[in-house]
Amino acid sequence: MSSELRRRGALGLRFAFDPVIPGVRITEVLEGSAKFAGVRVGDVLLSGNACRFDNELMFRSWAGDLRSGEKVYLYVSRPSGSEGTGPLEVVTLVCDVRERERESSVAIMTLYTQATMRDGVRLRVIATTPVECAARGTILWLPGFHRASCDWAATPDYPMRRWVEDCTRAGYAVVRLERRGLGDSEGDPLGDPGLEQELTDWIDAAKTMAEEVYAPRPWVAFGYSIGGLLAPRLSEPLALDALGVYGSGIDTWTEYLDALTRRRMSIEGRSEVEIEQLVRAQQALSSLVIVGHHTVQQALESRDLLRDHARILRANPQTNTIDGRSAAYWQEVYQCPTTGPLASLRAPLLAMWGQSDWVTSSAEHERIAALAPKGRYVSVAQCDHGYATHHSMRESLMHHGAGPYQPAAASAFTRWIADTITRK
């Protein structure tokens, strides 16, 4: 029997990355190792031990690989003087990394277990189950594209975590599979396993979970954002009983990006000239990197338009990434089949769209529901792309990533599961 996965450590920080300055700027210091070491809001972390934080991905990968019990040296830039008004100086802070806390919620049991993939790599599985009753089924939660951990122990009010808790309290087990290199999972934290590998990992994990009491049938896959592209492809190999998608899409990835760029800049009130200029830059980047398989560096070197807009397009030539994921990942997303898997679904599907979600559109979700033989479309009022409450797309865009939790999405989804599957 293989040993239990070791719990990783946590600094307890929230941060923002600004390409204009080196390092990452600290926006919040949570209870944990970094607060004890003396890190302050406003500090700019330049490096940790021998790792320099040239970009957000480097910091995320370094911090995500910390093990409890490690001692790290943080090099921080901050204003000098007791009032913090003097010239910038670099301060060295010694941080003893503490073990990450574990999620804990009222009336919910949270299990930290593991699943072994076909190549021997072990990935962390987090399963929440109701305490007061036996689970009526299992929701397999498929994440979006961000290479971020799905272990939210340090953020009890995070809308994603609240969504999981609401689904669990409604009577369903919810299972999350941590990607390779993230959280406690084995794998290279700097690597990008790719879309197809993530699909394979879910199939492998499900075979392990099929033998566990915490993942009872029926099984419902819930694809969040890009996870909605994977959910229909899991239906046949996992014999899913139902599927849900939220904030997903059906257009090819390049078409989606063009529509997203126009929608976002229109909400921002940009001129038609500005919008079309950025759309042309987006199309050029997609054509060269996603379709043409050039590197990001080659793309930027070939077009002045791309060099001028590299920051807003989040194109990083040093890491060959766009928006934090590898060029190869986006090539797989572009090639991912959409209409075929939906049209061949035998299980019922619910396509959900938040009315404040500027990242996706109602039209795409209506098409998803129309393509699935047993599809249904539902819109959720005042809900943005990440289950936060906003009254408009503009408000959601201006406060992206923030806002109080909106419970309507979880409520609508679990009612649909009950009416469609578990009350039969």
Give a concise summary.
Helices cover 34% and strands 23% of the residues. With 424 residues, the chain is α/β, with parallel strands linked by helices.
What does this structure look like?
It is built from 14 helices and 19 strands. The chain is of the alpha/beta class and 424 residues long. The chain has three domains: 9-99, Roll (Pdz3 Domain), CATH 2.30.42; 108-250 and 338-422, Rossmann fold; 253-334, no CATH class. The chain has an eight-stranded mixed sheet with strand order 9-10-12-11-13-14-18-19, with helices on both faces. Strands 2, 3, 4, 5, 6 and 7 form a six-stranded antiparallel sheet that branches. A three-stranded antiparallel sheet has the order 15-16-17. Strand 13 (219-224), helix 5 (227-238) and strand 14 form a beta-alpha-beta unit. It is globular. The mean pLDDT is 91.
Shape: globular
- How many β-strand runs? 19
N-C termini distance: 39 Å
> Which percent range describes the beta-strand content?
15-25%
CATH topology of the largest domain: Rossmann fold
Structural class based on helices, strands and sheet pairing: alpha/beta
**Biggest pleated sheet:** 8 strands, mixed
- Helicity, as a percent range: 25-40%
pLDDT under 50 segments (min length 5)?
Answer: none
Please state the average pLDDT score.
91
| CATH architecture term of the largest domain | 3-Layer(aba) Sandwich
Number of helices: 14
Number of domains: 3
So, the CATH homologous superfamily of the largest domain? Answer: Alpha/Beta hydrolase fold, catalytic domain
Strand order, sheet with most strands: 9-10-12-11-13-14-18-19
CATH class of the largest domain: Alpha Beta
Question: Mind telling me the C-alpha Rg?
Answer: 22 Å
